[in-house]
């Protein structure tokens, strides 16, 4: 078996040693010894309890720390993948991030207006080392959102890859993986943020930052009431 120590270590972003991550990991996997079952429990927690929100804060380094995302209870694809990686490492399962460009043929109107493209650059998901192999999983879209939009939720059995479905329940084309950008032991913050600015353009980034700030104000108001 290859040396997995790099993919078990806590990092600034994948801070698997944070008490909140440690406690949740132990709670979710209590009484379970089989790694696939542990991974499955962690996956479903992140999929359905960290709600998908593309307008989550994304501009600062701390916006990508696993415990911060966990406390906020929402995030977009990279942020959710970071939480899953941290929980996995805290459970003794080697984990790393993957980045890819995907085409979403069914971008919701509000998001489509903001992005002016159907390409999502630097989509983030996970690889978990299970049964002697790296298994790709994406916990991005929560089941509540999938039900609302008629999408097929990504399901994970703890053994086989769990990636976006190419079509919806009614046969519409949904997601294509158009470019792989590799795997990472930690989140390459500077590279990704620079890539966002270069690939999306400054006008789109300004719209995204504005939407994020509005969402953050809404979050703070909800926390105070």
Describe this structure as you would to a colleague.
- With 225 residues, the chain is α+β, with helices and mostly antiparallel strands.
- The protein has one domain: C8orf32 fold, CATH 3.10.620.30.
- The chain is built from eight helices and six strands; from the N terminus they run H-H-E-H-E-H-E-H-E-E-H-E-H-H.
- The C terminus is likely disordered.
For this entry, give a set of tags.
225 residues, alpha+beta, C8orf32 fold, four-stranded antiparallel β-sheet, two-stranded parallel ribbon, 8 helices, 6 strands, 43% helix, globular, disordered C terminus
Short characterization:
The protein has 225 residues and is α+β, with helices and mostly antiparallel strands. The chain is 43% helix and 18% strand.
Number of helices: 8
Oligomeric composition of the shown chains: single chain
| Highest-level CATH class | Alpha Beta
**Overall pLDDT score:** 93
> How helix-rich are the residues, as a percent range?
40-55%
What structural category do the secondary elements indicate?
Answer: alpha+beta
Q: Can you tell me the overall shape?
A: globular
* CATH architecture identity: Roll
CATH fold label: C8orf32 fold
Q: What is the count of distinct domains?
A: 1
> What portion of residues belong to β-strands?
15-25%
Order of helices and strands: HHEHEHEHEEHEHH
The total strand number stands at 6
Give the termini separation. Answer: 51 Å
Q: Calculate Rg over CA atoms.
A: 17 Å
